[in-house]
Amino acid sequence: MSKELMKIPIFGIQNAGKTSLIRSLQKEFSAITKLKPTKGIERQKLKLLGKDISIWDLGGQERYREQYLDRKAEVVFSDVDQTLFVIDIQDQGSFEKSINYFKDFRDKIADFSPDAKIHILIHKFDPGMEQDPENMKMLEVLKQKFIEIAAPLKLALYHTTIFNPLSIIHAFSKPLLGNSTLYDNLGILFDDFCNKNQITQMLDFIIIFSEDLIEVASYFKPAIEQIKLRDVAHSLFQTFTKKTMTLKEISFQTDFTVVEMKQFSSNKKRFYFTYGFDIQNSSNIETVKGDIEGLLDAVEKLMIYF
């Protein structure tokens, strides 16, 4: 495969939710309920952030998994840049099968693409599940299990749900972006800013989006509820769909959150600096705008290297 084309295969057992993740990324939500199990390998080519990307959706039925790990191993696992492995957190009966598959997957990645970056998506972690301590305990146990199996390979771990599209954008964006240094440095900048003083600590999130709704960097308040982010995501999608993105500044609010967006350019590409306050703290938006302008100046200097 030409190295001008970024290869991102997506693995997981049947019904883990791989195809629904891709549909969500493409904002094809109406098709999700009609999905059938993927048969074999389905390839999709996308152009995002000026990059040509080949996403391989690998069917999770046992007969296909055996082929990927045996006679098709070189085709599937060679020339991989980034790879995602999906597990359904709501199907505890499938954990053992998923973990065993991941062990074999890890060995093949190490053999054929040792420099590939691995991203674990703990999927179907739906809004409200984070409020149950048992769910959070199970989430941490799964994360530690994957980290132990993957060693010494490094992992990035995410929990995702189709009911909060921002969680899916967040999980896919780092692999699609490919520039993890910029992503991480901007994340540190946002984290420092949001812990700067009492006012900036009231920010729920900061996200930079590209024109094609890829997340370039983000900060989320640790305790933010997924339901709030779900509503923000749906309003964001409507904003992008309505073609209002030529505006320099955009404001909207949901039942819980006031959102501000500021357009800026870097290397002839258009981006959107987006931040949100809990609606109960919205009176502080004007106070923080001066600080936000300073933060945006720092962002633009870093984005030169994008």
TrEMBL record:
Entry's Gene Ontology molecular function annotations: GTP binding; GTPase activity
The entry's keywords: GTP-binding, Nucleotide-binding
GO BP field: cellular response to starvation; positive regulation of TORC1 signaling
A cellular component annotation (GO) from this entry: lysosome
InterPro entries for the chain: Gtr1_RagA, P-loop_NTPase, Small_GTP-bd
Pfam families linked: Gtr1_RagA
SUPFAM superfamilies assigned to the protein according to its UniProt record, in alphabetical order: P-loop containing nucleoside triphosphate hydrolases (SSF52540)
Protein name: ADP-ribosylation factor-like protein
Source taxonomy: Archaea, Promethearchaeati, Promethearchaeota, Promethearchaeia, Promethearchaeales
